[in-house]
Design goal:
Helix content is about 25%, strand content about 15%. The chain has 27 helices and 32 strands. The chain binds 2-acetamido-2-deoxy-beta-D-glucopyranose (10 copies).
């Protein structure tokens, strides 16, 4: 692997163009930070950008400096080799994050680590030279392994040579190295003569006390790292929990503490956040800074944060009565964006997330203060009021269905509170002809009908969907009201569940209740009503759903031109044509399938019956193995035909996002909005999109415009004339995938289909009078289940519908 670094450097540079984003928000109203010093909280990148690249790899460190606030601190876990060289590596044992187990078979050992017998390949058994034969791998299985076996181990000095704005060394195991006759203390003290160490942390009080007199504490801050409260700190024989009540003692040898998140916001047994402790203000009173660890975008966050890491960071960096002094993160872009945007609006020192040319950092000919100045200069002229607003419609999907059972009063009320512009009602119709809102026509998907006395109403109707279902038109509205709603759980197989406390809360609404609720909410600009299966309902069940919708809308006062906007959505053009003479309605054609292109004839047809189109995320950016590999022509083509484009479905759970979005739903939204120029998002988590839209100033700093002229300081900010836009398109699909070694590239994907005119054209809807309803709709009858009460599991086996099986399992 010759000179990989020079090969990857230009590629990394390209990557930067892609999606570096600053989110600026007016979240904080304070004029100064409630940190100990009043300065903004520090962003500390654990092992670099270890959420993406292998921990402590060269690109993890370099990318962290590029994707974060300009004063980002690089965190290095120091381990010693047999020949006393300090390396940056997350653990004593190499087998967890390198290829060593394959390269040096049978060289593993059994040692006591803090009294616990531990087997593995330990750094103390290998010289640096021997370690040059092995490569780093991703130690956390849920992250991409595509960057494995590219990067070699970095020494602490390699990292220091990057001249990062801050270097933080963590000494997790001083005692272990002492047992192996290696002195971490001597190593650190000798390194200190050559390298600026900004922070030095350890969970061992004895180690910190042994070095405290040897450091200039104006340059190096000593920090006691807390382990879990019940763990005993060996040198004091006290638990970390009891040490946390002894802050004046800690102040005698340290200037700060590093604590897990739960010391501030404890979680209850069911993963909800409890009221915060007083540790931050206690530590600040004792003169200690408070740094917080365990921030990962890609783990199940507390339900209170709705899987949105920005929401979590805000609770720490800008809470009502405190700000912590720094956060230790595997995804430093997210706290950088959170802190940077707060900073901008606070009018304090402007220190925005920046992108700095990689080669510049590497050759260290670059001054960070110049860069901050440049940014400040560029934005000082803009002022708060000039902050450009994103023009984006935030449309809910079944209300705030990420937090509450879909289409219930709770889901809609919360979507409104969360700041949605448009709430949606997927109209279904009951046996007695009442239109109401529910995500699917099959009651299995979002209610406990399988548990109810109606469980014997299951039918198989291939025209509607494969598999069997209990359909809304088989029950009366009062039957349906008696059913219990169920929260959707699209990622339960990844163990990511939604708000269990409200799993069965809320009540369903008729279309008319829904319209009244929406009409009352002054923040809403409109409602979206989607209609499916209209032809079947009218022909087989005698239920003219389009007529009913028109009637309810008119009765609710939505025909009044001054009322809220009405959007009618369908995948079937014949439905939209029924609404054509309602001039004030926006007609939305939904293309359910992922497409890669659209023929002109199809576009002309669509333009004939619709004002806008809903497409899937995969119809905008093409993905392979969750890496973006390209952008389709679909959005530009739709827009060139004068159609607005809404994209579905945005979710906060990180498993729903491509790697290119760093497990941060805000980065994903920004990439679609700024990168693909879409007009609206359809989202189950409207809070995240609404915060992005209303309070955020997103911008991307284009590296090309930040090229340093040798010998001169940054003299061009965001381009020197008006042709340069400061708000750059962030989406550069394909950039990240280029960093993958050729042998690990994802397989080629078959292309998605192209939408054609015949796909779009439909015959007219059958008219109501023309067709007598066929009782039962010609459906295959299903043998009835037990007459009353819960069905036996055996009776459910015929149900091929996975969603129903999951529902049943959840309810058992
Ligand atoms: C490395 O250690 C972490 C934490 O102990 C563990 O979750 C992970 O599975 C380990 N990975 C490997 C490759 O052993
Ligand atoms: C450390 O040094 C002592 C004394 O020199 C020796 O007895 C011991 O075996 C050494 N331990 C290790 C792990 O090398
Ligand atoms: C640290 O800074 C303080 C205040 O600026 C100064 O008085 C002190 O001499 C400095 N200490 C060292 C060791 O430089
Ligand atoms: C604080 O910790 C020190 C060292 O363990 C101990 O000597 C002292 O008694 C403790 N003070 C309190 C109030 O617990
Ligand atoms: C540590 O404390 C425990 C109980 O608090 C005591 O039993 C034990 O002897 C102590 N160990 C040392 C090394 O002081
Ligand atoms: C977290 O959510 C639960 C359930 O909604 C709520 O009871 C609790 O107060 C929330 N925690 C905080 C700190 O707001
Ligand atoms: C409309 O708002 C008023 C006052 O905010 C409230 O009293 C009323 O119940 C609301 N109506 C509906 C249908 O939500
Ligand atoms: C925002 O977008 C909507 C529809 O996409 C358009 O009608 C409107 O003119 C846009 N507003 C601005 C200020 O660009
Ligand atoms: C402004 O932009 C135009 C077009 O990119 C370019 O030709 C011109 O030289 C620029 N002016 C300055 C002062 O950079
Ligand atoms: C669309 O509606 C027409 C009736 O207008 C019907 O014949 C056709 O099957 C429907 N298409 C789909 C895909 O449901």
């Amino acid at each position: 692997m010759c000179n990989l670094r020079s090969f990857f450097t230009p590629l990394l540079a390209v990557l930067l163009l892609q999606s570096l984003v600053v989110v600026v928000s007016a979240q904080g109203s304070a004029t100064t930070w409630k940190t100990l010093t009043g300065n903004p909280p520090l962003v500390i990148a654990r092992g670099g950008f270890s959420g993406l690249f292998p921990d402590s790899s060269s690109d993890a460190f370099q990318f962290a400096t590029l994707a974060s606030l300009p004063d980002v601190v690089l965190w290095c876990d120091v381990q010693l080799t047999k020949d006393s060289v300090g390396i940056c590596a997350p653990d004593l044992r190499l087998d967890n994050y390198t290829s060593i187990a394959q390269v040096m078979q049978n060289k593993d050992k059994l040692y006591l680590v803090n009294g616990i017998p531990t087997r593995g390949w330990f750094t103390v058994d290998f010289t640096l030279n021997e370690l040059s034969l092995i490569f780093l791998t991703q130690g956390i299985y849920s992250r991409s392994e595509k960057f494995d076996n590219i990067y070699s181990i970095q020494t602490v000095e390699d990292v220091a040579n990057l001249k990062p704005p801050g270097l933080w060394l963590n000494i997790q195991h001083d005692a272990f190295f002492t047992q192996h006759n290696l002195s971490m203390r001597n190593y650190v003290l000798s390194l200190y003569r050559r390298v600026v160490i900004n922070h030095l942390s350890s969970p061992e009080v004895g180690f910190l006390r042994s070095v405290v007199k040897r450091f200039n504490l104006n340059i190096t801050k000593l920090v006691l790292r807390f382990l879990e409260p019940n763990v005993i700190e060996p040198s004091t024989n006290e638990t970390y929990g009891s040490l946390s009540n002894n802050l004046t003692f800690i102040k005698t040898f340290a200037s700060g503490i590093l604590i897990p998140k739960s010391y501030i916001w404890p979680l209850d047994a069911s993963n909800y956040v409890q009221p915060h402790t007083s540790i931050v203000s206690d530590a600040h009173k004792a003169g200690l800074e408070v740094f917080v660890s365990d921030f990962y975008n890609d783990v199940p966050l507390s339900y209170n944060y709705s899987y949105d890491p920005v929401t979590e960071y805000l609770n720490f960096v800008d809470y009502v009565d405190f700000s912590v002094d720094g956060v230790l993160s595997d995804f430093p872009v997210t706290p950088s964006a959170t802190i940077g945007k707060l900073n901008f609006f606070m009018g304090a020192v402007v220190s925005l997330p920046t992108i700095i040319e990689l080669s510049t950092v590497a050759t260290s000919s670059f001054s960070y203060s110049d860069f901050s100045f440049c940014i400040a200069d560029c934005f000082s002229g803009l002022g708060k009021n000039a902050a450009p607003q994103v023009n984006l419609s935030v449309i809910s999907k079944n209300g705030a269905s990420g937090d509450y059972p879909g289409c219930t009063d709770l889901a809609y009320q919360n979507a409104i509170l969360d700041g949605a512009d448009v709430i949606d009602c997927p109209v279904q119709i009951s046996k007695d002809g009442i239109p109401f809102c529910l995500g699917t026509i099959n009651l299995f998907d979002s209610t406990t009908v399988a548990q109810s006395s109606y469980s014997n109403r299951a039918q198989t109707i291939p025209q509607i969907e494969a598999g069997s279902g209990i359909f809304t038109f088989s029950l009366t509205w009062s039957d349906i009201q008696s059913l219990t709603p169920v929260i959707s759980s699209p990622y339960s197989k990844n163990e990511l569940f939604r708000n269990p406390k409200f799993r069965n809360s809320g009540k369903f609404l008729t279309l008319s209740d829904f319209l009244a609720l929406a009409k009352n909410a002054s923040s809403l600009s409109g409602v979206l009503i989607s209609i499916e299966n209209a032809a079947y309902l009218i022909e087989k069940e005698g239920l003219p759903v389009t007529d009913k919708v028109l009637d309810v809308l008119s009765k609710a006062g939505y025909d009044d031109p001054t009322s809220k906007k009405v959007m009618i959505e369908s995948t079937n053009s014949s439905v939209l044509k029924k609404f054509r003479d309602k001039n004030n309605y926006e007609l939305v054609y939904r293309i359910e399938e992922d497409i890669q292109d659209a023929q002109d004839a199809a576009l002309k047809d669509i333009k004939g019956f619709a004002n806008s189109v809903v497409i899937s995320k995969a119809s905008v950016f093409r993905e392979s193995s969750s890496f973006l590999i390209g952008v389709t022509n679909v959005v530009p083509k739709l827009r060139s035909h004068g159609l607005s484009v809404y994209v579905e479905t945005f979710r906060n759970e990180f498993v729903s996002q491509a790697w290119d979005f760093f497990s941060d739903s805000t980065v994903e939204i920004n990439s679609y909005v700024m990168g693909a120029s879409i007009s609206g998002v359809i989202t189950e988590f409207p809070l995240t999109s609404a915060r992005y839209k209303s309070k955020s100033l997103m911008f991307l700093v284009d590296m090309q415009q930040y090229r340093v002229n040798p010998g001169r300081s940054w003299n061009r900010c965001l381009g020197s004339n008006s042709s340069s836009r400061p708000y750059m398109s962030p989406a550069r699909p394909g950039d990240l995938v280029q960093l993958i070694a050729p042998f690990a590239l994802p397989p080629a994907q078959p292309p998605s289909p192209v939408i054609t005119a015949p796909d779009v054209e439909e015959g007219p809807l059958p008219s109501h009078r023309a067709s007598a309803p066929v009782p039962g709709g010609g459906a295959t009858a299903i043998p009835p289940g037990p007459p009353n009460g819960l069905p036996k599991i055996g009776a459910c086996i015929f149900l091929s519908n996975l969603a129903m099986l999951i529902t049943i399992l959840l309810l058992l």
